[in-house]
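User: New here, any thoughts?
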Amino acid sequence: MKHRQPLAQYFAPRLSAERAARVWARVARTLPPQRRRWSRPAWRLAIATIAALAVLLTLATAAHDPMDGTVVETGAGQGQLVHLPDGSQLALVAFTRLRLEQVGMHDVRLALEAGALEARVTHVAGRSFVLRAGDVEIRVVGTRFTASRDALGAVEVRVDEGRVTVAEGHGPDRFVEAGQTWQSTLAEAPPVPADETVEGEATGPARAASSAAARTVTGSRPPRVPAEVQELYLQDRYTDAYDALGPGGPGSYLAAASPQELMTIAEVARLSGHPAGAALAVDALRTRHRRDSRAAIGALELARLRLNDLDDPAGAVEAFDDAIALGLPRPLRDDALARRVEAIAKTGDRAGCRVARDRYFVEYPEGAHVAGVSRMCQ
C-alpha cells in the first residue's frame, strides 16, 4: 500500500503579501485577547510617572501637617514640651493654651491664647515663624524667648538669646534684643487712688509713670529664675529643679520674678516637698502682682498650703478671703468658700463657722461641697 503524501508538497500557493495580511487580520479577530508586552521605554516611562506622583503626594501631605489646628492646653501643676518639625521646641507652663495654626518646615504660625511659654526656635533659612498673642505679633528667625499673655490680654515678651520683632496692632515693628523685655499697652493698670497702697508696688502718679515706662523695651532686669529650673520642672524632676534655685531657695527670686515664674517656683517647691517655699512664692504673686489675673489663683493656693501643710488655719482664712476678693472663677470660688468653712472650724470659731457655712449654702445650694460643709461647725 502506497503512503499518501500531503498535496501541499506538490502545489506552491499563489498568495500575495497583501492577501496574506488580510487573512491574518481576519484570523486575529477570532483569537482571544493577548496580554500586551511592554517595551523597555514604556517601563521607564511608567516608573518615572509613579515616582512623580509619589513626590506630589508627599508635598501635598507636608502642606497640611497633622499638627495644623491642634490646641495644646495645660492645667494646674502641668507642663508640656512641644517639638515642631523644624526642630524648634516650645515649653508650655501651667494654665497655658496654645493653638498650632500652621506647622511646616517653611511656615510656622502659632497663637498663644493664654498663659506663657518658652520658645527655642532653630534657624531655618527662608522659614517664617510667627507667634500671635491677641493683636501682638512676634516674628523670629532663631532665638530663645519667653512670651506670656494674661486673662486681660496683656502680653510680655522677654528675649534670652538672639532677637525678635514685635508689633502691636497696626503699630510699627520693634526689635527686642537679648536681655530686653517688651510689654503691650494692655499691661498698663487702671489709675489707682492716691491713698491706696499695695505692698511692693508704686501708687497713684508714680505707678502710672512706671506703667507707661513698662510698655516700651527695657534693659536688663535683675537676675531671673534660672532657665534650668523651668527645664527640670517640665521633665518632672522637681527635686533637681528646686536645687537649681540655689542655696537661697525661692526667696532669692521673689522680688524680680514675673507672675508666671512665681507660679513655676511655687509648683517646684510644692512638688519637691517644700510647702513653706511654695507659700513664699504664691504670697509674692498675690501681693506684688495684684492686678495680674493669676493673683487670685496664687491666693487660693496659699490658703490651701496654709490649711493643709503649714498648720495655719487663721492664715488660710485670710488667704481664702483674699482669693475671693480678687475674683476667682466660679468653680474655684465654690471650692474656696467650702474650704474657708473648714479653716474657720479649725480655728475654733464656731459662730464664725456657722456664718461661713450659711454663706456657702446661699451661694451654692447645689454646690459640689454641700455634703461636706453640712457636717462642719458641730
Observations:
- The first strand starts at residue 70 and ends at 73.
- Residues 40-63 form the longest helix (24 residues).
